[in-house]
Specification:
Chain lengths: 130, 96, 139, 118
């Protein structure tokens, strides 16, 4: 089956991201496909390249990145939710004349339509909220 | 045939009860994260419709709870079981 | 990375300084001359301060997009501003068309008509010229 | 069977949920999907009249909600028990809604392919 996952909780403030990640791994272990992980609300902080957790804690942005790379999963961050909260790719940083961009590699900013699309195109869309 | 997930403690929050307002007879309710406290014997969610109950094992363990403390009739599932539930039910609705 | 950020910071600082010196006196001169300069926009041409908008500014934005505004354009532009006043959002194509149908008429309430006036993405382009925020919930 | 049901369960001002759920509704509709809305729990407070979010420096969603019909979002339900317990009347809301009973809620969810719940 084809899955997509939506993450609305911020990493390091809520378990939602951990739960979503473990669920994603279990989905892949079962031989299913994950088309897209969509980050919305505070979930967008998963896409920050500037996340720097202590060495003995999980680095969630990196874990998503590795999972995505290995399994061909799209990591899509809602552009409106992200820009508001200070998560920018190079284009948006330029557009708003900001001093730097901070979107982690492997993630892309895109519209909320990608969440709607995931709900329609996939057999299952599973959301994890804070 | 909807699988509802609930991640809030029933002792603190009305989320589980709101969820149960919307469940149909053949729906399932999976308690996860802080929602697992709703599986305790002393938890009394207002059960309007009969549903199948599940609780996520990893979240029980993380909170120092055991299967033995759970109400009768609740099925304990691990993450692989969670995925199987999402296969069986037609869609998933998350309550948080 | 640090250096790049520091450089960039200087750039933005100097931009801010320019803007600061742009104020008061110059603004006065500009309004007297009906200046041809567009007020500050982002890199896509949307106004940074929505209150900078007036019909002159609209003409200028349109010109910089290679467009000459006609009465037909103005009808849509004014209606868009009314939409924004009413709903506090920049519309997508379908709601814009519906709104036009309600307030202007069936002839204008067609996406083809809007594309003839404003090009391939009429809702976006017309919003830009009408001085509305960039639609955040774009597809 | 409609495509998308969005459930609004959070109050209007304290968090960004009301705004972000509404954004999803508008985008879904702009995408050509048939979108229905359900207000229940504290979400019914989003329907209160005379909200003045600018008093706390926020933009609010009242004006945007008036645009729902422009986006062809016409199936808007409000859970009547949630209104009752919060002392609100169905005929004094900021948009037109169809009251729905607790008994009818399960059927409403089953009628939609995808339920988003905020």
């Amino acid at each position: 089956m084809k899955y997509s996952i939506a993450v609305y909780g911020g990493p390091y403030s809520h378990q939602a991201t951990h739960t979503a990640f473990h669920f994603a791994q279990a989905v892949l272990d079962k031989g299913h496909e994950i088309q897209r992980v969509f980050f919305y609300h505070d979930g967008i902080y998963n896409g920050s390249a500037l996340v720097a957790p202590p060495q003995d804690e999980a680095n969630l942005p990196q874990q998503w990145q590795q999972l995505a790379e290995k399994n061909g999963v799209e990591l899509v961050v809602c552009i409106a939710a992200a820009v508001r909260r200070g998560l920018l790719d190079e284009n948006e940083a330029k557009r708003y004349s900001k001093p730097g961009s901070n979107l982690e590699q492997g993630y892309q900013l895109s519209g909320l339509g990608q969440l709607v699309d995931a709900g329609l195109e996939c057999d299952r869309l599973v959301s994890f909220g804070p | 045939m909807i699988l509802h997930t609930v991640n809030k403690s029933v002792f603190n929050c009305n989320t589980l009860n709101e969820c149960l307002l919307t469940t149909a007879r053949n729906d399932g309710v999976l308690l996860l994260e802080d929602g697992v406290y709703g599986a305790l014997e002393t938890a009394h969610p207002t059960e309007i419709h009969e549903v199948s109950w599940y609780v996520l094992k990893e979240d029980l363990l993380a909170r120092g709870l055991s299967e033995g403390q759970c109400r009768e009739g609740i099925t304990v599932v691990d993450y692989a079981g969670f995925v199987e539930l999402t296969e069986q039910y037609k869609s998933v609705c998350s309550w948080f | 990375m640090e250096n790049a950020m520091a450089d960039h910071k200087q750039d933005t600082e100097s931009v801010t300084n320019n803007q600061a010196s742009d104020t008061a006196l110059e603004k006065k001169q500009k309004s007297q001359e009906h200046s041809q300069e567009i007020p500050a926009t982002d890199s896509e041409g949307y106004l940074e301060n929505l209150s900078d908008w007036n019909e002159n500014v609209a003409e200028q934005i349109a010109q910089s997009e290679g467009m000459q505004l006609t009465e037909a354009h103005w009808q849509i532009i004014h209606l868009l501003r009314r939409f924004y006043e009413e709903f506090e959002l920049s519309p997508a194509m379908r709601p814009l068309v519906k709104y036009i149908g309600l307030h202007l008429g069936k002839e204008q309430a067609r996406s083809i008509y809007l594309m003839q006036l404003f090009g391939d993405s009429p809702a976006k382009m017309a919003s830009k010229i009408a001085g509305l925020p960039k639609p955040t919930n774009c597809l | 069977m409609s495509d998308i049901l969005i459930i609004f369960r959070k109050p209007p001002v304290g968090t960004s949920w009301a705004r972000e759920a509404l954004d999803l509704a508008l985008v879904g509709a702009a995408f050509g999907q048939k979108v229905s809305l359900l207000f229940m729990g504290d979400g019914v407070f989003q329907l209160a009249q005379n909200q003045q979010p600018d008093a706390v420096g926020q933009k609010g969603t009242q004006a945007m909600m008036q645009a729902l019909s422009m986006y062809d979002i016409d199936d808007i339900y409000v859970h009547n028990d949630s209104l009752d317990t919060r002392g609100m009347a169905a005929d004094q809301l900021n948009i037109d809604c169809q009251p729905i009973t607790s008994k009818a809620l399960p059927g409403l969810l089953q009628q939609h392919k995808q339920v988003f719940n905020f």
